[in-house]
Design goal:
Length: 560
């Protein structure tokens, strides 16, 4: 959530602390700090452990109080029509109420150029302020600046008001108060210095707390537009019980995933912590995260939002109670899925890819389709998740070349060669996924002699030998329709073809799976390729001959 303060107040009064805390004037502003200071007091405080991200640092000097029935308030405020504020980013001096007697847009005057420099109160950047009263001039001066800058010589705003009538009092009360209206936020005083009848000592900025605390986050100005999709780190920390091991759902190459329950909504979520080393491309990535969060399909794991902290990016998803599909394929602790369940999962993932490629507002390339990224809901429906590698581009435009990312065995030859991800590179990965689900074997496995076994080659060999059903997971038994099983395996091979134009689109895949169109007549001759050889000896020598072969791949796909 972006920082959106409604009103932040430094209140000074000669009244006892009880009225300061509970006066009707403060009905909008619960007081955070109130303390009694003798008239000759000097006080300096630095708070070592603020509760969350640090927002403000105040140095208050030569400040005094007003009459017993008067409150002097310095407010740093966003817009409120109720109090006739000048704009949504200003500093005001309030007397006996919340309407400012004098106000000015937040900022400071540069000593060298004399020009006014804006400061954004909702930027979550640390700032410092000086509030001073000159008894001879009967003038209150307020000055604001970024943290670390010397006090500007010209104050931000001044207001003439006689405070001398209360100087005879033996004590005074100073308090800090804040209000957010309908917007939840937090305000923090990192340190402050106070003195009567003299200049308050400067605050040692090196002793102020740093942003290294339990709930500290990384935020930048440009993230404001993505605010509704951002979670606070505190909420995610509490949801996952501090990211305890007992909440760990799984670990992958791109991060660890934890189960959590959001503290307010009680919604069950999955929180993925991803390494976030560089700022380069961060804005584009967050924009894509938000865009992906707007996707809606029954076979997609809903991406709810994100949070950034230090070198971590946290992605928040709907929680899927049955976990990832790969556990049902490879773990002995999970029951074996029957054929109907597996086919339903394959169809569900195919439907989600069709939506991403053709029916969403932009083309979405998932780039990491595999069993471990397919999650199962309470009814064992397959939902495609983990959009950490996804790329988006407008329909009718060409995708941009990028770094090759993904998992070996699911990467198409042209993607490895050119670095350009397209819908057909997702189709290739989907072909590997089909074979993985039917055979319960990974696309690349290590043999007994340390050699590599490539699943697509193995399936092709069984087909050539007339033993195609034998490659299926033995746990299926004979509880399947033979023609349906063979059709799905052949479709997996067709999607895994090394030549992109030989692969079907996801719309065609759905037609084949739903029985709305017959799978083209395929022969082992036109499907002959050696994926292991491609991996071992390079791709170009294998891909190029297929581009000049006399076989018409358009005919293969059309069935003509």
């Amino acid at each position: 959530m972006p920082f959106s303060p409604r009103r932040f107040i430094l209140a000074i009064s000669s009244l006892p602390s009880q009225p300061l805390l509970y006066s009707p004037l403060f009905r909008h502003m619960p007081t955070l700090v109130a303390m009694e200071l003798p008239s000759s007091s000097h006080r300096q405080l630095i708070y070592p452990r603020p509760y969350q991200v640090n927002i403000w640092a105040f140095s208050i000097s030569k400040t005094t109080v007003i009459a017993q029935t008067i409150f002097l308030q310095l407010s740093l405020t966003q817009y409120s029509s109720e109090f006739q504020d000048i704009n949504d980013n200003h500093v005001g001096i309030d007397i006996n109420g919340l309407k400012s007697s004098q106000s000015h847009t937040a900022g400071y005057y540069n000593d060298k150029s004399g020009s006014f420099q804006n400061l954004t109160l909702m930027s979550r950047k640390k700032m410092q302020a000086w509030v001073e009263y000159d008894s001879q001039e009967t003038r209150i001066d307020v000055t604001l600046s970024p943290i670390g800058m010397s006090k500007p010589s010209k104050p931000l705003l001044s207001y003439e008001f006689n405070l001398s009538t209360v100087l005879i009092n033996n004590s005074m009360y100073v308090g800090f108060s804040s209000s957010t209206g309908t917007v939840r936020t937090s305000h923090y005083i990192l340190g402050w210095s106070f003195k009567l009848n003299g200049v308050a000592p400067s605050i040692d900025l090196s002793k102020l707390p740093k942003s290294r605390f339990k709930y500290a986050e990384l935020r930048e100005d440009w993230e404001v537009e993505f605010g509704p999709h951002r979670f606070t780190y505190k909420d995610l920390y509490q949801a996952t019980n501090g990211f305890k091991e007992k909440e760990l759902l799984g670990t992958g190459g791109f991060g660890r995933v934890y189960r959590g329950v959001l503290p307010v909504s009680k919604l069950e979520v999955a929180v993925k912590k991803v390494s976030h080393e560089s700022r380069d491309g961060t804005k584009q990535f967050i924009a894509e995260v938000v865009s992906i969060g707007q996707l809606r399909h029954r076979n997609l794991v809903q991406l709810l939002g994100y949070c950034r902290r230090k070198k971590e990016l946290l992605l928040v998803y709907d929680y899927m109670p049955n976990g990832s599909l790969d556990k049902y394929l490879y773990s002995q602790e999970k029951p074996a899925l029957n054929w109907t369940q597996r086919l339903n999962i394959i169809k569900g993932v195919a439907s989600s890819l069709l939506y991403l490629h053709e029916d969403s507002e932009q083309v979405v390339i998932h780039r990491d389709v595999k069993a471990s990224n397919v999650l199962l809901d309470s009814e064992l429906n397959g939902r495609l998740g983990d959009f950490g590698l996804a790329r988006l581009y407008d329909h009718g435009t060409d995708p941009q070349t990028s770094h090759v990312v993904g998992t070996m065995g699911y990467l198409s030859p042209e993607l490895v060669r050119s670095g350009k991800a397209t819908p057909l590179t997702d189709v290739f990965a989907f072909g590997a996924f089909i074979l993985e689900v039917v055979c319960a074997r990974r696309p690349i496995e290590s043999g007994a002699q340390g050699d590599q076994i490539i699943l697509v080659d193995l399936v092709l060999q069984h087909w050539q030998s007339g033993l195609l059903p034998d490659i299926a997971d033995p746990r299926l038994g004979e509880c399947y329709e033979l023609e349906e099983l063979e059709m799905v395996l052949k479709l997996g091979l067709l999607c895994s073809h090394p030549v992109p134009t030989a692969r079907p689109s996801m719309r065609q895949v759905m037609q084949y799976l739903d029985g709305d169109a017959p799978l083209p007549e395929l022969s082992t001759t036109c499907m002959s390729f050696n994926m292991l050889g491609m991996l071992q000896n390079g791709l170009d020598s294998y891909v190029m001959p297929y581009l000049t072969t006399t076989t018409s791949f358009s005919s293969i796909l059309s069935g003509r």
